[in-house]
């Protein structure tokens, strides 16, 4: 089992807490961008991360907001839909990884959920080093201006019972110019809470990252 270490990401004047896991001989790492109102402790993201670790991929799950910012957002919801702000945090985490001597040579992927997927798309459009993106139940409509600029192979995973989000992702597929694929998990709703749904997400994400980051 891969050990997980708590790390502090110093991004200018802000410190963000993360959980870092890098299996022995890993050649790639996936950064997770959680959805609105969530955190690095998202049970769904943790399940996907465990699957990636078993496949030999490193993972970094971190809080996109500081404790003070999270408290403000809990009252006002002012930051959870600020996609440029969240994308900048993801880019900051990427630069933090690149500056870490023991991690700087790892190939990088982004996994985003819900609004975090929009942040991952915007960040990938800016960071050419990102080798793959996976969106789970994502809101690519919130990243529309960035879609055509993404060069990273991108996988969109959507629940079969999540009709509004299916439509949003179908529109995004038309605008993406990179290698792309959309997979629908039959019967799954937005949070993939149905039996076996999250396991399908984990398998799809693992296979995509292993293929594109190898």
Identify the strand order in the major beta sheet. 1-2-4-3-5-6-7-8
- What would the CATH topology be? Rossmann fold
Q: What is the rounded Rg?
A: 16 Å
Annotated CATH homologous superfamily:
Alpha/Beta hydrolase fold, catalytic domain
CATH architecture: 3-Layer(aba) Sandwich
- In total, how many domains does the architecture comprise? 1
Mean pLDDT: 94
Element-level helix/strand string: EEEHEHHEHEHEHEH
Q: What is the CATH class name?
A: Alpha Beta
Measured between the Cα atoms of the first and last residue, the distance is 21 Å
- How many distinct helices? 7
- The shape is globular
Q: How many E strands?
A: 8
Structural class: alpha/beta
**Uncertain runs with pLDDT below 50, 5 residues or more?**
none
Percentage of residues in strands: 15-25%
Structural overview:
The chain has 214 residues and is α/β, with parallel strands linked by helices. It has one domain: Rossmann fold, CATH 3.40.50. 40% of the residues lie in helices and 25% in strands. It has seven helices and eight strands. The chain has helices at 43-54, 67-76, 83-99, 115-126, 144-147, 163-175, 197-213, and strands at residues 4-11, 14-21, 28-33, 58-62, 107-113, 130-136, 154-159, 180-185. The chain has an eight-stranded mixed sheet, with helices on both faces. Helix 3 packs across helix 4. The longest helix has 17 residues, at 83-99. The chain is globular, with a radius of gyration of 16 Å.
């Amino acid at each position: 089992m891969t050990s997980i270490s708590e790390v502090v990401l110093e991004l200018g004047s802000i410190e963000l807490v993360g959980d870092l896991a890098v299996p022995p001989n890993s050649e790639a790492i996936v950064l997770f961008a959680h959805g609105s109102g969530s955190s690095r402790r998202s049970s769904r993201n943790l399940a996907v991360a465990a699957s990636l670790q078993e496949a030999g991929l490193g993972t970094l799950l971190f809080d996109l907001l500081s404790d003070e910012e999270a408290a403000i957002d809990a009252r006002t919801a002012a930051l959870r839909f600020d996609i440029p702000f969240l994308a900048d945090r993801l880019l900051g985490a990427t630069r933090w990884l690149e500056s870490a001597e023991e991690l700087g040579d790892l190939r990088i992927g982004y996994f985003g959920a819900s609004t975090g997927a929009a942040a991952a798309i915007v960040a990938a459009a800016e960071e050419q080093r990102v080798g793959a993106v996976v969106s789970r139940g994502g809101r690519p409509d919130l990243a529309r201006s960035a879609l055509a600029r993404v060069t990273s192979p991108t996988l969109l995973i959507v629940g079969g019972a999540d009709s509004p989000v299916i439509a949003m992702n179908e529109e995004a597929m038309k605008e993406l110019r990179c290698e792309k694929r959309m997979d629908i998990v039959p019967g799954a709703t937005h949070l993939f809470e149905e039996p076996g749904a999250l396991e399908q997400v984990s398998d799809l994400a693992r296979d995509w990252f292993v293929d594109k980051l190898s």
